[in-house]
Specification:
By secondary structure, this protein is of the alpha+beta class. It has 4 domains: about 100 residues, no CATH class; about 60 residues; about 55 residues; about 100 residues, no CATH class. Strands 1, 2, 3, 4, 5, 6, 7 and 8 form an 8-stranded mixed β-sheet that branches. Helix 7 packs antiparallel against helix 8. The longest helix is centred in the middle third of the chain and has 38 residues. The protein is elongated and about 80 Å long. The two termini are about 40 Å apart. The relative contact order is 0.08.
């Protein structure tokens, strides 16, 4: 029933968007245009600008994001709608409103400059952030994003930059570090083929780069350089991900469970937010829904079930690839030592 309702809603919004765009196109770019438009077209043009710069962007965002509408995407689509209106509406009718797209582009430039200012502020405060991380002796995987958020801000661009910094940190500067051990640390990958799978992928990318780069270079220099850059970036990401997996096992500290699996996913679960924990066969038989359950199960050559599923009292934020966030109601975890983890949790 939910799927049917979503389909109906999606197609209704899509039909309304099609209606808005087509009606405005027929109004200005059809043989009937001279008959449909009155002598004073200013109010008609204002209505079209509202359609293309407000109504259409809202419909697009509702199609893409459901009910969650944010300012930055709306402004971007609004400017796109105004630029489209400038080309759609004939110059004779649009002349009194030529300043509108220019003003909109000016707003976008201002936002871009503000974002560049955030980047400059992050670079300015980065030495202090690094000193703060070292003084607290915490894993950069958890402490760096938190420090950036506290000292600079929570903008998506800052989260992406923090994620990139973590990738380079683990790829280049973490080789002398050893994985933490102790009764509160639990690895997730040692009994899987995850590291071997990553190494196999790295070898394949290196061989492909060496074999195909010069062949593509003969056809297009730009394409070969782009592919070379992407391959190098992918290798660095895999190397950084391996190190992040190795150096950041699950651990329990100060009434919280810290769970991560490389650079791509991590979450902090306070004990007071745990509603229920299902173990063993009960966890294995539960069907995992990726929309509300975040799986911390190391990839293997076969699909393996979780050892436990932790359900929350309320949805919790999880940090995903490239600094993006998403809320989840549960996590599914597979450990190398599930019995020891259960003993520790039962004692808490």
């Amino acid at each position: 029933m939910i799927a049917i309702q979503r389909d109906r809603r999606f197609y209704t919004l899509l039909f309304l968007l099609f209606l808005v765009l087509c009606s405005n196109t027929l109004l200005y770019r059809s043989p009937l245009t001279p008959l449909l438009l009155p002598t004073d077209t200013n109010w008609i043009v204002v209505g079209s600008l509202i359609d293309l710069a407000v109504v259409a962007p809202l419909l697009i965002l509702f199609l893409k994001r459901g009910r969650k509408i944010t300012v930055k995407p709306f402004i971007t689509w609004m400017i796109s709608g105004l630029v489209f209106a400038r080309f759609l509406i004939p110059s004779a009718y649009f002349e009194p409103f030529t300043y509108v797209p220019i003003a909109a582009i000016g707003i976008e430039v201002f936002i871009l400059l503000a974002e560049l200012g955030l980047v400059a502020l992050l670079i300015w405060r980065l030495p202090g952030i690094i000193r703060w991380i070292k003084s607290h002796e915490e894993s950069p995987l958890y402490s760096l994003p938190s420090a950036v958020e506290k000292r600079v801000g929570n903008h998506i661009l800052l989260r992406i930059l923090a994620a990139e910094f973590l990738m380079f940190y683990y790829a280049f500067t973490s080789w002398k570090k050893k994985a933490p051990v102790g009764e509160v640390y639990f690895s997730l990958h040692q009994k899987s083929s995850l590291i071997a799978f990553y190494i196999m992928l790295i070898h394949a990318i290196i061989i492909e780069t060496a074999a195909i780069h010069w062949l593509i270079h003969e056809i297009s220099v730009v394409l070969s350089v782009v592919m070379l850059f992407l391959n190098i970036y992918t290798v660095l990401f895999f190397v950084g991900d391996i190190q992040a997996i190795r150096l950041n096992p699950l651990f329990v500290k100060q009434g919280k469970i810290y769970v991560s699996l490389g650079l791509g996913k991590r979450i902090v679960i306070p004990n007071e937010e745990i509603k229920a924990i299902r173990w063993g066969k009960e966890a294995e038989e539960e069907k995992l829904n990726p929309k509300d359950t975040l799986a911390f199960i190391a990839k293997d050559f076969e699909t393996l079930p979780p050892h436990c599923i932790i359900e929350f009292k309320r949805p919790l934020d999880a940090h995903l690839f490239m600094g993006f966030k998403k809320v989840y109601k549960k996590v599914a975890i597979r450990l190398d030592e599930p019995d020891r983890f259960r003993e520790l949790i039962d004692k808490a």
